[in-house]
Description:
Layout lengths: L37 E4 L2 E4 L2 E8 L9 H8 L5 H9 L3 E3 L16 E8 L4 E2 L4 E5 L3 E6 L16 H9 L6 E2 L8 E7 L2 H12 L3 E10 L7 E3 L3 E5 L4 E4 L8 E9 L18 H8 L9 E8 L6 H8 L13 H4 L13 H10 L18 H5 L4 E5 L6 E3 L11 E8 L5 E3 L42 E2 L13 E2 L3
Parallel strand pairs: 10-19
Antiparallel strand pairs: 1-2, 2-6, 3-5, 4-5, 7-8, 8-10, 9-10, 11-16, 11-19, 12-15, 13-14, 15-16, 17-18, 19-20, 21-22
Helix pairs in contact: 1-2
Amino acid sequence: MTALTVLDPSQPPQEKPEYFEPPPAVIITPSDPWPRPYYLEDGLRKVRPYHFTYNTYCKQRWRGRELLDIFATEFRDRPQDYYKDAIECGNVVVNGRKVPSVREIVNNGDIISHTLHRHEPPVTAQPIGVVHEDNDMIVINKPAGVPVHPAGRYNYNSIVEIMRAERGHGWNPLPCNRLDRLTSGVMFIGKHPKAAEKLTDQIMARTVKKEYVARVIGEFPDEDIVCNQPVMQISPKLGLNRARASGKDARTNFKRMAYYPPKPRTNGTRSEAEDNRSEKERTRDSKMSWKSKTGYSIVRCLPLTGRTHQLRVHLQFLGHPISNDPIYCNQRVFGPSLAAGDALSDYDEDIISKLSKMGKSEVAEAMEYHDEMMEEYNKKKAEKLTGKTCEICDTPLYSDPGSHELGIYLHARRYACQDGKWDYETPLPEWALPPPGVDGPTATTAETDPMALVDEDGKPKVDGGSCRSNIIDNQEEQLKPLWTMPG
């Protein structure tokens, strides 16, 4: 006897349960060498090449795009022909399967895997300094030039992996704040998730005061400076940001700590014997505004917002970029003015094109490298493609970076809890100390504290010696400074 189910016609029909496809298989990294394949050479920490598989979910901006197009436009360290061959031979797969064509469409939920013989760039061999350590947290002094997390060409040569190698394979360091690869200074590493989450929440809530120190070209104004110029990302692929009136709100306080003029020449000028420039070169140099900015300044910086590259962009906008910044102090990219006061430029595509060539066919030289006292050897040693390839995988090989490429003159000197419960700082980096034989500050003082420019709520003061800000709102005034001096 068959049981019958009587349906109530007054009730809506039951919908079929929605079926979700199981997640696609992820290819596991073929190897996880331990101990890590580090070796030290010429002041650098290097990693012996190894096989590795990158696995990544489809990003939103990749949906509906062809596989080769994604690799050709999103990843810049290899030519398009390499990615085409990798897809066709199965070194790049989608959801664990070789695709029939380089024109395969990538969809939401797909996992793309790329297996290759991995060559990591070297980083400094300088050890990671420990400022403070307790049961919950390690406060470190991050060396310049070392990325925090594995990303891009870097994996084992990262803060997370170097610390894991030092403390054991099963130890999981949990960074609570982020510094750019080229930046040095204070970082917090949680020992367990609860401690990391607590400090991360503090930083995200903007209850932590941060102070940086930078070395910039020329004589930075001795007055208090507040820059309110918005910042916009114009190339996610290159990580390039610009001062833009239509960008996100950004605010930084600056206070000059010291100015060091260039060493005087005979009779205070360059002698004819020293000046071997041609007339054409002298005319060219006269049109470069950065050439008139002699010497350098040490500047204390207080970011009141946290935009990517905010300090580097604001210093560039103020006409005093960080003197060895390979991006924002690069004349080949930004022209002879180095984009000082430029918040409305229409040349972003040209800038992106020029910057994309840096480190490939050209050396990424900041203005600091043009100083006549800089040895030609260090210029030529900068990292770029050598024209040689790996014997195993035919990967184009890079030269070792020069010492000036391992970081920039930007240091996170101090982090402090707003309610006074904790305060950690490092000494000034070597590049911020006075030159040999020259008097200057070797430590920070209250007189140069940028916190004096803000009230208890972190808002800029507008009286008593602080500066007034002024927003540029038309094309004709784009070269005027965004800040004005008191009086």
